[in-house]
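Hi D.,

Good news: the full-assembly prediction came through. Inputs first.
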Amino acid sequence: MPFNELRKDYILNRWVVIAVERCRRPTDFVKNKTVRARDGVCPLCPGNEHMTPPAVLLYLNRGGKIEKASDYGDSRPKDWLIRCVPNLYPAFTPPKPEEKPSIIGEVERENLALAVGHHEVLVESPVHDEHPSDARITQLIYVINAYMDRLSELYSRQYVRYVSIFRNHGPEAGASLSHAHSQIIATPMVPRLVAEELEASKEQWRNKGVCAFCEIIENEKNSPRLIAENPDFMALAPYASIHPMEFWIIPKKHRSTMLGLSEAETENLARIMKACLGGLKRLLNDPPYNFGFHMAPQSEAASYYHWHLEVYPKLAIWAGFEKSTGMYINTVSPETAAEHLRGAIQ
Amino acid sequence: MPFNELRKDYILNRWVVIAVERCRRPTDFVKNKTVRARDGVCPLCPGNEHMTPPAVLLYLNRGGKIEKASDYGDSRPKDWLIRCVPNLYPAFTPPKPEEKPSIIGEVERENLALAVGHHEVLVESPVHDEHPSDARITQLIYVINAYMDRLSELYSRQYVRYVSIFRNHGPEAGASLSHAHSQIIATPMVPRLVAEELEASKEQWRNKGVCAFCEIIENEKNSPRLIAENPDFMALAPYASIHPMEFWIIPKKHRSTMLGLSEAETENLARIMKACLGGLKRLLNDPPYNFGFHMAPQSEAASYYHWHLEVYPKLAIWAGFEKSTGMYINTVSPETAAEHLRGAIQ
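Then the structure:
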């Protein structure tokens, strides 16, 4: 019997068994057709604005132009295109204006800190179940612009050290609301995995004098793991994918954060996200997935960190082995994943 | 609004928000009664020994004494009490005798190695659905003894660097077979999380001159996180639990591996596992869970590493935030978890 391959991530010291012996094909993961019960009343649908805390950001169409606003007093515009609200059950909460700076963002003891920060829900569309692959490009551009607006705003708070933007799609991937939305969490410390990526990127940059992700773009552009590309972005199945059908979207231009995308770049990001998420949806009958933006928190990382988006289809279960060792088993090789995703992209 | 607590693990640089604002009670996680379809023919049930590869270890009752054996030739004893077989779809596979040592256990390139090792299924009982909480203590003692037999055997192979023993219970926790079983995976490198625990334990031991887990036992014995104890073991909900209702079982005697447990210690481990897993089962109607033994691979860690068992009930979904940051959100505090588990232990 030939051996499976044990592969290491591009930069992290994270290993995965590509267990092709199990001979799983991507189509083994096609989601069974399920008629999802429509939630009762959706608190994120237009007309139900009173069911959420007041919006911190609204995109309104005013005479063909986008006007940015927020809810105030009793005003709750219902004709929004994008609506960003604080989470009703926040994991992280902002300090009140009167709270002393000393309590904010401080580690209380070596093993305790206050969960100061923000936890927001970004409603991506007035249309309840508008999957990114079904949305118009202009709507996706609004979403990306709103991400950038919230990033700028949240990073301006002195107690915020990191801002995570992520999306959970489908109840199996942890989405408790089915209305199209992303979440934004601002934390008072740089999270573990982000810190590890920053450290590893910095080390590679020091040792080789080249950014790890710039090198990935160069090495993978003709590889069997390439899925799609356009002038500004590349989508690929990473060499040591830890999830079946995992893919990453990487900007070709080296930058440590998505802040400052040009209009053309924003449109190209929208296009490649729509294409790849659409391919995944068609291929596996709208499977659950998570995605998360990986960006550097601080300006000092500008030289060595390269922002990107990681998409994790939720097709397998991490069980006792993965959880107690941090080593993974993936039953679909990234080469197979890329081949099928390429075929499913229209 | 008061802030949630952000807590750090005893030794790892891993942080979790204890999100009590969401006011989840343990009983919110009671599993719906589901009549699980019985698998067609169970390949792990007595009488179906031909459906698996030959056993590498059998416990047979011979005149009231346990005789250890293995399948050979066409011999397939059917009256076993414990049966350990190679996994039909192994992630890691052993080298053939004729394979050159040079290909074994070597990292091929900096990001590629061969998945040389072992992947075994340890059938814990002839009784198809014997949950550890329903098993007799003598049967659980056989299971623990069989773990130790396989540990000794696998660590004797020169290409094995680490042996992971874990259990997946319920399909939601990744169990593809419902017959009571554990799995054993032997890997050609020390996995990431184990390496991190070893490093952190060593550092604490160097800095403080005391083992981190010996200190946990001392600090938690009168804490609200204590769940159960007996002369040799303590069960507690860890201070920075990343799973709702997570608990750990820790030996009071400092040792880096379970190898060498005395008869009395083995029985006390069986008793506390039965009690705690039984409490979890009663409290939440047989929920899915994973558990994994954490042990040091090498003898040099004897002074600073302290073996233990970590049990992760599968009650929540790690979604985009957890997966892209390595920071966790737990909606049940360990103090609440311990209170309810204490109440459910008979």
